[in-house]
Amino acid sequence: MFENVSTFTLILYMIVLLLVVMLLTLIALLIHSGLFRALDDIGTGKPPIGQTVLAYRFQKGPYNEAGQVFTEAAIISPGNKALGIYYDDPHKVDSKELRYVVGSVLSEGSSEINEEEVKKFTEQGFKILHLPEVAYAVRTKFPHVTSLSILIAIFKAYPQLKEYIEEHKLCAYPFVEYYDGESVHFMAPLSKQDEFFVPECEKDGAGDQPTSEFETTLNTSHSTLGEEPMTSDAAQTTLESEGHVTADGGDESLLNTTQNSSVAGDSADKDGDDDDDSEDKDGEESKSALDSGRDRSGTEDSELADDEQTLSDGSTSSFEVLKHDQTEF
C-alpha cells in the first residue's frame, strides 16, 4: 500500500495523524474536566468552611502566578486542603499591584493544630492566619476533576459572581477559593470582611483603598442614597423568604428611602419657618430685657456714687475708728 509513497509524504501523514490524535485527546480531556458543565447555582448561604487556621504566604503580582505557591504548600503538606484569598479586581488594578494570599489549611473548626506542621510551614516562610466563621457568603462551586478544572471553573465563576453581586447590590468581598479535593468552592463573605485581610495588606496601604470595583460601586451608591450595605442578618432574612435576594426588593427599598427623605424634607422646611417666627419673638423679648437691665444698672451706679460721697464727707472713716479703738486699749 505504501510502496509508491515517498518517505517524506509518509512522515507528513504521520505528523497530521499525530496532531489529530492530540487534538482529540485535548478535547476529551477538556470535556472530562468540565468544559460543558455548569456551575452550581450562585446564591447566598453558609460557606463550606468555618473558623480556619491557615498557613499562608502573601503575594503581590498577577493572579496566574498563584499556582507556584499552591504547589509549594502542597509539597510541605500534601494532604491538606488549599485556600486562596484575592483582594483586588484585575480589571481595575494593575497586574503588578494585585494582592493575594495562598495557603494550606492547618485546622478547621475545633480540630487541633499540628504543631509540627506549623513549624514546617514557618521555616519555609509561611505565616499563620486565623479566619473567622461567617454566617453567610455569596458562593458557588465547580467539580475539581483535573488541573484543567480549576481554569475552567475560574473562567466560569467570576463573571457570574460579579453579575450576581451587582444585580442584588451586595457588599461581598474579598473573593476566596477553597479546594477540598472534590470541588473548587468560590465565595465572598457578607460580614467580617476585615478579618480576611492579612497584616501585609495594611502595610501596603490596603486600608485606604477599596478592594474591588464591587466595594467601590457599593460605597458610592450607599453614600448617595443614605443606605447601609446588606449584612449577614439581611441576607438571612432574604434566604428565609425567597431563597435568594431579589432585585425588585432592592428597588422598592430605594423608592421607600426616597419618599421618606422627601417627607422629612417638607417637615424640616415647616419646622424651619416656625423656628424663624420664634427667633423674632425671642429677639424682641431679649431687647426689652436688655433695656430694663441698663436702667437697673444706671440706678445701681448712682447709689454707689452717693455711698462713696458720704464716706468721703464723713468725719470718721473706718480706719480712724479702728485707730481710736486701739489707742483706748
From TrEMBL:
<keyword id="KW-0472">Membrane</keyword>
<feature type="compositionally biased region" description="Polar residues">
    <location>
        <begin position="254"/>
        <end position="263"/>
    </location>
</feature>
<feature type="compositionally biased region" description="Acidic residues">
    <location>
        <begin position="300"/>
        <end position="310"/>
    </location>
</feature>
<feature type="region of interest" description="Disordered">
    <location>
        <begin position="201"/>
        <end position="329"/>
    </location>
</feature>
<dbReference type="InterPro" id="IPR011256">
    <property type="entry name" value="Reg_factor_effector_dom_sf"/>
</dbReference>
<feature type="transmembrane region" description="Helical">
    <location>
        <begin position="12"/>
        <end position="31"/>
    </location>
</feature>
<protein>
    <submittedName>
        <fullName>Testis-expressed protein 264</fullName>
    </submittedName>
</protein>
<feature type="compositionally biased region" description="Polar residues">
    <location>
        <begin position="209"/>
        <end position="224"/>
    </location>
</feature>
<keyword id="KW-1133">Transmembrane helix</keyword>
<feature type="compositionally biased region" description="Acidic residues">
    <location>
        <begin position="271"/>
        <end position="283"/>
    </location>
</feature>
<keyword id="KW-0812">Transmembrane</keyword>
<feature type="compositionally biased region" description="Basic and acidic residues">
    <location>
        <begin position="284"/>
        <end position="299"/>
    </location>
</feature>
